[in-house]
């Protein structure tokens, strides 16, 4: 028993040491919990400690950026991305149970410990009542914020590990050995706890942040309702709803950790939660974001406007589509952009390594708003073998009179907003006049290519979506305008609602409405109209299975390069997507004809074990009541 108490005390010491940037409230050598809650200002620092464990989603070290196969770098053996090997190893199938990558259970290998975060939340909730100089309304708001954070950290662990121990209260130092040896709880129990805790928090949260100078990023009612919706969608999805792969996954006492039968009523609960979140977001003035041209910018084309609608949704911080922005990632988005920017007239020192895969590029629709393999007017068979000369009419997007792959032609505007590649425009960088656009020429040895193997795109594409058009520079000095990361966008909530409605009741005008609002921002017609006019199977949106496929693809397109599709393909159980060979062009070739030859960079070999993260092996020894995730 003494051994386990020492472990708990040691973890508490480590946790307090790691948070001393926030928790600096008492003289040296007499730090106690009571001191931290003697006055409001001291308690507020502890509140910020609870917030300090939020993930840095806009950081290149976020493993979900590359884990989905949308972004890729040269393999770990040759990549010069020093300091980012964990995320590269995860993308190349390097996850393991000895030292797991992104280990949020313990707080290692690129992740913070969410269980340490939960411990701090429990300490706060147990002690905030002691603070004498607080108004009741403010105390209730802080309690609601920390309850939300506690639910969010449990949800984050659920997404990663599936069934987890729920820490409702911190164990006392007098806890017995068996009390310390917590066990995993069934998925449905974890979901119910998260939802219950969010429901307790929601009434005391503000609908909007009133003191924006100091509190932007703090939790609001729209954020909490959206997280509740995400939780219930996750619970209704195939990974957690009657998953036959985990029917024998049990605790050591025989308790089943996954429900064994599909419950379609969960989709109705998810749909209701999505609609409730949307209504409150609208009340808080959230709306789909459209680019507003600055007064000093020259007239831009419709094509550029549609592209900027998409790009500025990410890079224009605190725009009206952002439900929750993560300020903790603002500095990190500078590094992220540097890794996404090809060498050009401004960024002259090197090209960047963070490449977009052809797998990601294939996901985008044709200009007609349907998948490339379904458009009856688009040459799908010749997409990788035919070259075309770019016409003058495409000058807003591509460099006229040059040759490119037919794969890059006649695509939807999000293709050109999200990707930069040879002979495509890079709007911004001080070049916003469409008579003098910046085009990149990235074929090896030409114009803006690196001409070396130190910094380059291994596919021929970079994720332009993540690059702020306000970046500037000269003579090799690249000045990057960082931005707050939009952790939750209204568009993603609309798509969750459309998905939930379809799964609960099948296709409907209401489901089409919300997906069509997302498509409209990208310059596309509605789903039913687009398929009726251009698709080989015009009735696809009218069936539950067909519309499911459409919603999944629309979601992956809209959230491309934001890290969310890593979780989506897992909750959908799309092993076929996870195991597609990662492809790119033959980027070391010096002629257009040879450059546009398809090459396989890496072939993943995922199985259903990769739907969940492994628990570190030593944790199973320390706590014999824990069971490992299947096949790890």
UniProtKB/TrEMBL annotation:
- InterPro entries named in the record: SusD-like_N, SusD_RagB_dom, TPR-like_helical_dom_sf
**What are its GO cellular component terms?**
cell outer membrane
Record domain RagB/SusD: where:
320-632
Subcellular localization(s) per the UniProt record: Cell outer membrane
> Would the keyword Chaperone turn up in this protein's UniProt record?
no
The main place the protein resides is membrane
Could you tell me which PROSITE patterns the record lists for this protein? Answer: PROKAR_LIPOPROTEIN
Where in this chain does the record put each SusD-like N-terminal domain?
112-211
Where are the annotated coiled coils located?
none
Q: Which domain of life is it from?
A: Bacteria
Q: Which UniProt keywords apply?
A: Cell outer membrane, Membrane, Signal
Q: Family, per the entry?
A: Belongs to the SusD family.
Report what the protein is called: Starch-binding associating with outer membrane
Its source organism is Pedobacter nyackensis
């Amino acid at each position: 028993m003494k051994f386990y108490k020492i472990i708990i005390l040691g973890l508490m010491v480590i946790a307090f040491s790691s948070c001393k940037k926030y928790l600096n409230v008492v003289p040296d050598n007499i730090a106690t919990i009571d001191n931290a809650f003697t006055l409001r200002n001291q308690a507020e620092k502890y509140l910020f400690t609870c917030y300090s464990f939020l993930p840095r989603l806009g950081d290149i070290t976020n493993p979900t950026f590359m884990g989905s196969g949308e972004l890729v770098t040269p393999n770990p053996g040759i990549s010069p991305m020093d300091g980012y090997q964990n995320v590269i190893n995860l993308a190349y199938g390097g996850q393991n149970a000895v030292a797991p990558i992104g280990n949020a259970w313990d707080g290692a290998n690129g992740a913070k410990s969410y269980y340490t975060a939960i411990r701090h939340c429990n300490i706060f909730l147990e002690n905030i009542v002691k603070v004498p100089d607080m108004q009741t309304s403010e105390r209730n708001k802080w309690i609601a914020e920390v309850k939300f954070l506690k639910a969010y950290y449990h949800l984050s662990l659920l997404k990663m590990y599936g069934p987890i121990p729920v820490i409702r209260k911190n164990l006392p130092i007098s806890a017995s050995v068996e009390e310390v040896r917590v066990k995993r709880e069934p998925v449905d129990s974890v979901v119910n706890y998260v939802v219950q805790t969010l429901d307790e928090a929601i009434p005391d949260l503000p609908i909007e942040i009133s003191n924006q100078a100091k509190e932007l990023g703090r939790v609001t009612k729209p954020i909490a309702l959206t997280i509740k919706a995400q939780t219930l969608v996750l619970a209704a999805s195939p990974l957690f709803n009657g998953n036959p792969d985990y029917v024998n996954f049990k605790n050591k006492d025989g308790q089943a950790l996954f429900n064994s039968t599909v419950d379609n009523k969960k989709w109705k609960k998810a749909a209701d939660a999505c609609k409730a979140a949307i209504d409150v977001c609208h009340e808080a003035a959230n709306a789909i974001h459209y680019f507003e041209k600055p007064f000093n910018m020259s007239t831009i084309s419709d094509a550029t406007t549609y592209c900027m609608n998409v790009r500025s949704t990410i890079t224009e911080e605190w725009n009206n589509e952002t439900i929750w922005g993560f300020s903790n990632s603002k500095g990190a988005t500078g590094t992220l952009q540097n890794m996404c920017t090809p060498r050009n007239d401004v960024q002259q020192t090197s090209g960047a390594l963070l490449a977009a895969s052809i797998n990601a590029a294939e996901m985008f629709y044709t200009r007609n708003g349907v998948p490339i393999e379904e458009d009856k007017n688009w040459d799908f068979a010749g997409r990788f073998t035919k070259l075309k000369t770019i016409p003058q009419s495409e000058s807003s997007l591509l460099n006229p009179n040059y040759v490119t792959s037919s794969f890059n032609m006649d695509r939807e505007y999000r293709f050109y907003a999200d990707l930069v590649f040879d002979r495509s425009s890079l709007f911004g960088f001080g070049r916003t006049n469409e008579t003098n656009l910046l085009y990149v020429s990235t074929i090896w040895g030409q114009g803006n290519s690196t001409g070396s193997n130190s910094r380059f795109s291994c596919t021929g594409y970079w994720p332009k979506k993540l690059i702020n058009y306000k970046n500037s520079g000269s003579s090799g000095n690249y000045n990057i305008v960082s931005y707050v990361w939009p952790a939750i966008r209204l568009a993603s909530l609309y798509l969750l609602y459309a998905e939930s409605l379809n799964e609960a009741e099948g296709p409907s005008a209401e489901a089409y409405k919300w997906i069509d609002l997302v498509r409209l921002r990208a310059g596309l017609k509605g789903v039913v109209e687009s398929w009726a006019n251009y698709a080989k199977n015009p009735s696809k949106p009218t069936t539950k299975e067909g519309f499911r496929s459409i919603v999944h693809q629309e979601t992956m397109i809209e959230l491309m390069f934001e890290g969310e599709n890593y979780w989506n393909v897992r909750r959908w159980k799309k092993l076929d997507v996870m195991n597609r060979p990662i492809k790119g062009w033959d980027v070391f070739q010096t002629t257009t004809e040879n450059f546009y030859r398809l090459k396989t960079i890496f072939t993943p070999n995922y199985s259903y074990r990769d739907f969940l993260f492994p628990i570190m092996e030593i944790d199973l020894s320390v706590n014999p009541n824990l069971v490992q995730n299947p096949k790890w």
